Predict the structure.
Amino acid sequence: MTMRRPPAPVAPDDHLLAAIESIRRILHALRASARRAESLPGGVTGAQLFVLQTLADGPVRSLNELASRTFTHQSTVSVVVRRLVERGLVIRHRSAADARRLELQLSPRGRKLVRRSPPMAQHRLIRGLHDLSRRDARELARLLARLVELMGAARGAAAMFFEAQSAGGRGNASVRRRRAPRR
């Protein structure tokens, strides 16, 4: 596959500089938040801590509801929840009202981890987007979708921020490396 060369350097317009700077600041906040999560004693990824904190915000009656509250596709949040269940941080149980439905809640270990963790930047991002006027949010969504298209980055489902979606379902490589035994 041939990569197109970037355009020849030119003096960018002030609005382009401001846009790039804003994107950098958002990505920096998200990365820094993910690194803080990974440095916690529980060794969770940023996406996992975001899900844990979302579960701590209130009861979740289904995986679809959690996906909606995290603004993530159901299949993506399902992978994150499965990992959290395997680690004993989340409990899945049958709904008392509808036995076909699985409800999610934090385990005691999950609650403890959330209590000692800093808030994730994803929550601040969602709150900031929510605080935009409906018109501004719609325009931002349209412009970002166009930018993604122009970048050729529209393929496949979007994973949660900085959550690796490996075939083996192991999650974030940096967390795996940090936990690997030293020889």
About this structure: Helices lie at 14-38, 46-56, 63-70, 74-86, 108-115, 121-131, 134-151, 173-179. The CA atoms of residues 145 and 151 lie 10 Å apart. Strands lie at 90-94, 102-106.
